């Protein structure tokens, strides 16, 4: 406790931190599942500086990213904790680290990439020495989901970490992650061979955040300003936009037309300007940061009272992270999301272009575009509690009665009814199946389904298909939801063609494995 105040300058522990610290100090293996920003680092940084019982010595922290390691190492050094970074490819660094580990002035923490922790030659013998002399305090596996082939962040070198338990059976292991998928959790535990570990798993629910989702009609600037002036005058907030240009324009209008203290931020700003803008925002001179998602990593301002999405985020995970920057002090904060169908197309185009005009691999493309459809489905689902929807993405069952009416869907009146759209779903799938060879896009299939008389439909002769107009008596909102639901969950997949310009238009295709027994959508009866 004294160290918490004295060294880390914190007042009290957050959920599960003390439990994790005590368990590892008692020599137990620990698995910690905490949302990003929950405070995972303290769970091993504080024990690392405690000399207690059998666990004195050096704490090894395995982390996948150089940037993460550098940030943490610098922060720890600034607190006066002797910490070593072991990441570089140069042999010099390795021999220096090994020399330090042999010396009498051993560091408290060694941050290492999994590749560096290969147990051979000199490394192996130094670790064995530490082990024999009781100076191996624990192994910490940060971002532990990288070990699981279930996840997207799978990293080959992480799989080698099973040797830690085999070579050093008495050294406690702590694994930490923010990935809650039950399959990955079990996979991590069995791959690290820590089956008997203390499991500290907490809900990803952010109780103090109020989620509001609105369909965007035309320009939303006026409505955004009204929201800010009514509820958040003089509060700090973030507005996320998709494009750099939009950030610049929105910030400029907020400043010049509405007199708000807004600045813009995106990846293309010179470093000095980025620092300056961030500093202004951090210190409260600028209140509203209008930014692309380039703004966020490492942003740690406790009193952000609102996060607005000017348009649809790229994935539900991204949405959770971005909105998660609001209300870190635990006080109420608002998360307002504006969206339009065209956002999904714009996002798909951005994804198709890839980073630095390097088109993504087919798997990445498919995965990311399905992620966009999941967001679309979330936006359109105007009935079910937003928390239930978001947390389901993290494999968590959230009872909407615990929402406290802190989301648009729970606070709005009107009964929720379920609409069995299985019949329509089957027809839609059959339609896509039949028209697959004509390469139909989502917009085209919806035209045929609702029986549009457009020239495009006629030109392809789709108006003569027996299922032409099959969905004409269906409510338009439900029809949109149907496609998104089928893509996000089952029945339809997307097909892309790679040509010299990169990935081309996205076509719908029927996924072979899916028979789709039934599909029920929730709607609100007004
Ligand atoms: P994670 O690794 O889970 O994403 P971090 O360890 O980076 O989270 O912590 C996120 C932020 O929360 C940091 O700024 C950290 O200083 C702060 N924090 C962690 N523990 C506490 C605590 N007990 N009290 C207050 N702030 C804390
Ligand atoms: Zn709710």
What do you see in this structure?
The chain starts with a helix and ends with a strand. The protein is built from 20 helices and 17 strands. The protein has a seven-stranded parallel beta sheet, sandwiched between helices. The chain has a six-stranded parallel beta sheet with strand order 8-13-12-9-11-10. Strand 12, helix 12 (316-323) and strand 13 (333-339) form a beta-alpha-beta unit. 39% of the residues lie in helices and 18% in strands. Helix 2 (17-25) packs parallel to helix 3 (40-48) and helix 14 packs antiparallel against helix 20. It has helices at 2-6, 17-25, 40-48, 66-78, 91-102, 121-132, 163-167, 182-191, 221-231, 244-256, 271-283, 316-323, 341-353, 362-380, 386-393, 408-411, 422-435, 442-450, 455-459, 476-488; strands at 30-33, 58-62, 83-86, 109-112, 136-141, 173-177, 198-201, 209-215, 236-240, 262-265, 288-291, 304-309, 333-339, 415-420, 492-499, 502-510, 520-525. The protein is globular and about 85 Å long. The protein is α/β, with parallel strands linked by helices.
In terms of quaternary structure, the protein is single chain
Which small-molecule species are bound to the chains here? adenosine-5'-diphosphate, zinc ion
Low-confidence stretches: none
Average pLDDT reading: 88
State the helix count. Answer: 20
Percent in strands = 15-25%
Q: How many E strands?
A: 17
The order of strands across the largest sheet is 3-4-2-5-6-1-7
Largest sheet: 7 strands, parallel
Helix and strand composition category: alpha/beta
Distance between the termini: 54 Å
Pfam families: DEAD, Helicase_C, RecQ_Zn_bind, RQC
Organism: Pleurotus eryngii (Boletus of the steppes)
GO cellular component, one term: nucleus
Subcellular location: Nucleus
């Amino acid at each position: 406790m004294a160290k918490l105040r004295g060294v880390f300058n914190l007042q009290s522990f957050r959920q599960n931190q003390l439990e994790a610290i005590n368990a590892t100090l008692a020599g137990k293996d620990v698995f910690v599942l905490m949302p990003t920003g929950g405070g995972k680092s303290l769970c091993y940084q504080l024990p690392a500086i405690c000399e207690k019982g059998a666990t004195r010595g050096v704490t090894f922290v395995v982390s996948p990213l150089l940037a993460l390691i550098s940030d943490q190492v610098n922060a720890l050094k600034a607190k006066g904790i002797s910490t070593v970074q072991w990441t570089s490819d140069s042999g010099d660094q390795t021999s220096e680290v090994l020399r330090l580990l042999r010396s009498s002035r051993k560091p408290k923490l060694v941050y290492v990439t999994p590749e560096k922790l290969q147990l051979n030659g000199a490394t192996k013998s130094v670790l064995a020495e530490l082990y024999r002399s009781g100076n191996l305090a624990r192994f910490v596996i940060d971002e532990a989901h990288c070990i699981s082939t279930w996840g997207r962040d799978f990293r080959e070198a992480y799989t080698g970490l099973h040797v830690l338990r085999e070579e050093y059976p008495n050294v406690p292991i702590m694994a930490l992650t923010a990935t809650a998928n039950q399959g990955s959790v079990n996979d991590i535990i069995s791959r690290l061979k820590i089956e008997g570990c203390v499991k500290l798993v907490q809900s990803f629910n952010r109780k103090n955040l109020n989620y509001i989702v609105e369909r965007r009609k035309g320009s939303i600037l006026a409505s955004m300003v009204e929201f800010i002036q009514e509820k958040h005058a003089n509060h700090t907030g973030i507005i996320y936009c998709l494009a750099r240009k939009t950030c610049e324009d929105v910030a400029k209008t907020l400043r010049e037309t509405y007199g708000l203290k807004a600045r813009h931020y995106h990846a293309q700003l010179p470093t000095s300007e980025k620092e300056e803008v961030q500093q202004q925002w951090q210190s409260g001179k600028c209140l509203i940061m209008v930014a692309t998602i380039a703004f966020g990593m490492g942003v740690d301002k406790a009193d952000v009272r609102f996060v607005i999405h000017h348009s649809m985020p790229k994935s539900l995970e991204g949405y959770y992270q971005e909105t998660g920057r609001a209300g870190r002090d635990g006080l109420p904060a608002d998360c307002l999301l504006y969206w339009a169908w065209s956002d999904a197309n714009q996002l798909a185009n951005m994804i198709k272009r890839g980073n630095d005009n390097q088109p993504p691999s087919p798997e990445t493309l498919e995965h990311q575009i399905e992620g966009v459809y999941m967001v679309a489905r979330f936006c359109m689902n105007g009935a079910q509690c937003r928390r239930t929807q978001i947390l389901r993405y993290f494999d968590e069952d959230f009872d909407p009665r615990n929402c406290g009416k802190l989301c648009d869907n729970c606070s709005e009146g009107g009964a929720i009814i379920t609409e069995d759209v299985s019949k329509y779903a089957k027809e839609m799938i059959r339609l896509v199946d039949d028209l697959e060879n004509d390469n139909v896009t989502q917009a085209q299939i919806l035209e045929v389904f609702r029986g549009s008389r457009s020239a495009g439909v006629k030109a392809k002769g789709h108006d003569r298909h027996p299922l032409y107009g099959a969905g004409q008596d269906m409510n338009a909102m439900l029809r949109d939801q149907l496609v998104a639901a089928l893509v996000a969950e089952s029945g339809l997949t997307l097909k892309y063609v790679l040509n010299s310009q990169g990935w081309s238009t996205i076509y719908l295709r029927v996924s072979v494995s899916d028979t789709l027994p039934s599909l029920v959508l929730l709607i609100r009866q007004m």
